[in-house]
Amino acid sequence: MRGTVLYAPGDVRVEDRPDPRIEQPTDAVIHLAATCVCGSDLWPYRGIEPVNQPTPMGHEYVGIVEEVGSEVRTIKPGQFVVGSFFASDNTCELCRAGYQTSCVHREFAAATGAQAQYARIALADGTLVATPGLPDPDLIPSLLAASDVLGTGWFGAVAAEVGPGKTVAVVGDGAVGLLAVLAARQLGAERIIAMSRHEPRQKLAPEFGATDLVTERGDEGVARVKELTGGLGAHSVIEAVGTQESMMQAIRSARPGGHVGYVGVAHDVALPGEELFFSHVHLHGGPAPVRQYLPELIGLIGDRAIDPGKVFDLTLPLEQAAEGYKAMDERRAIKTLLQP
Amino acid sequence: MRGTVLYAPGDVRVEDRPDPRIEQPTDAVIHLAATCVCGSDLWPYRGIEPVNQPTPMGHEYVGIVEEVGSEVRTIKPGQFVVGSFFASDNTCELCRAGYQTSCVHREFAAATGAQAQYARIALADGTLVATPGLPDPDLIPSLLAASDVLGTGWFGAVAAEVGPGKTVAVVGDGAVGLLAVLAARQLGAERIIAMSRHEPRQKLAPEFGATDLVTERGDEGVARVKELTGGLGAHSVIEAVGTQESMMQAIRSARPGGHVGYVGVAHDVALPGEELFFSHVHLHGGPAPVRQYLPELIGLIGDRAIDPGKVFDLTLPLEQAAEGYKAMDERRAIKTLLQP
Lengths: 340, 340
Fold this sequence. Notes:
The structure is a homodimer.
Chain A: E1 2-8, E2 11-16, E3 28-36, H1 42-45, E4 55-56, E5 61-68, E6 80-82, E7 86-87, H2 93-96, E8 107-108, E9 118-121, H3 124-127, E10 129-130, H4 140-146, H5 149-159, E11 167-171, H6 175-186, E12 191-195, H7 199-208, E13 212-214, H8 218-228, E14 234-239, H9 244-253, E15 254-262, E16 270-272, H10 273-279, E17 282-285, H11 290-302, E18 314-317, H12 321-329, E19 336-339
Helix pairs in contact in A: 5-6, 5-11, 6-7, 8-9
């Protein structure tokens, strides 16, 4: 099959790779209907995370089940499935508590790389969720978004305790931040402040439900959020970047007693204890347990109640994955969908 | 009047001080029935916090209202009252949300120092809670505990989402940690693991409700908590120290999806973002909004359902405050009650 491999920062190639096969009896192999490039793929692409060896890329996937292992019970060949970046058994105590991304059997779901024609998915029964029948083709981008960025934005909103009557601020205007806006709206937020400096993203945020835009960053951004919230700060803040600046912007934008949900993978972040103590905020986040939300998200997409696939503003054949990375790196694209 | 003043690390004196008087129309002056030395008083006493000028000490108090300002409506002279270390209007949006220690009009409740015969209390109506009639004298230590250490331990337990069926770990065996054990029991915890190395405290913890004792600290303490919780960690962890080691011990003792409630005033703490991200814990804490819990705590004490006054294992006349500090500093006493 053809698959994407990162050789070094900036050097991503599509090449012939071994066809994935069932290795564990709990595996499935899926034929990808669509895949995409994640903001987190840019960390190694930019050299911020090391690239120690040629690495198959991609962890977002939807497609048709081709084959299942002998112990797979509920997932069947021919089903259209969506899954998350971490595999989970979905039966352990942590899974049942809603933390499938901390499953005691957690592993990468698609070790073979999902930016490819086929992928082997671990712990298929616990990881994959089948759609009711084959989806309309125009729904595939939205289902692909559910695989990671929508589920992650959703968890950010849940972790930030978004709900009716609340004012929500979203730090970060990548696909996750934009879909956190969508999640906040679905969860009933009264007011949603999107913090965004980039024009195409500023246009999409209101379509997803943002009521206010703040273009300032850092302390100036915090001051604007305070101005918009009677001096107190937002009830809920969703952090979707993962830097020191964005975390502090999020914490400082929340009111005492407010909730910060953080889903940007933290890079070189150290939170000052004294400031956190006196901020009185709640802090929760981490790798989003997307599996928990997939049934609900698949339902909303099937009902056409939400259209998260709009975050894909560039669609390319898999063979042009390198251009897909480049466009995101240069901020010419919010998110690139790849057609295998 | 006589009052306690800290001149320099280790140098605490009881001396003649001006009698507190009404300064703002919202003030009250109370005649203290009892006061005490707080673990947090030891930070400047030990020189860990700077002592820039002679400082009147003490922020825990119960007593009889002597006089009130012209705008005080609900608090009356002759009432026996309990209050918290921060004054609050108890009417602003943050107070109504339960965060009186982040009240928009927050100030120190007893700027004149509560380790004294009299104290001026700011924002009397919002800060003080009157007991139903004069309490029995033997209840005074417990009511004094409610003023800070009990309310703080209680908030730690609430912030850690302690509840029925949960396993709770408590990091720190000072008065706050011990009363967090008591709070966890009152809030219905199934199992309460007290982490304590000091014998008198190890004896008190089970009396307050601890079901298990862990004497190891740091990584070894974490390993013991994991052993006791099927490898997963506690559902709820209460942190009652405020150091880097204790915060990390608390975070690492909690299971993914678990809750850490931290009430030890943070000193030189920096939380590593990556570890926090993948820990999947909830983090909440800060200066305890004791005011929120006072009516309930006063009720429990009046009913003799709880006996938090047991944390006072040394009682001295106010004149011997210096010995009270010294005994706590040298860990000869858990907490010193001072009789004005």
